[in-house]
Amino acid sequence: MNFSQLIQILLARKYIILLTLFIIVATTTVVSFKMPKYYTGVASVLVDFKGTDPITGIVMQATLLPGYMATQVDIISSHNVALKVIDRLKLDTVPAIIEDFNETSEGKGSIRDWLADSLLKDLDIKPSRESNVITVSFTGVDPQFAAEIANTFVWAYIQTNLELKVEPARQQSAWFDEQLKGLRTRVEEAQKRLSDYQRETGIMVLDGRVDVENARFAELSSQLVTAQSQTYDSVTRQRQLSGAHAKGKLGELPEILSNSLIQSMKAELTKAEGKLSEVSKRVDRNHPQYISAQSEVNNLQQKIAAEIQTARGSIENAASQAQQRESALKKALAEQKSHVIELKQQRDRLDLLNQEMISAQAALDTTMQRANQIRLESQRNLTDIAVLNPAIAPIKHSKPKIAMNIAISIFIGSLLGMGFGFLAEMMDRRIRSADDIIEGLGLPVLAIIPASRITRKRWLFGKNKVPSMQRQGI
Question: Residue 418: which domain range?
Answer without folding.
Answer: 1-34+402-427
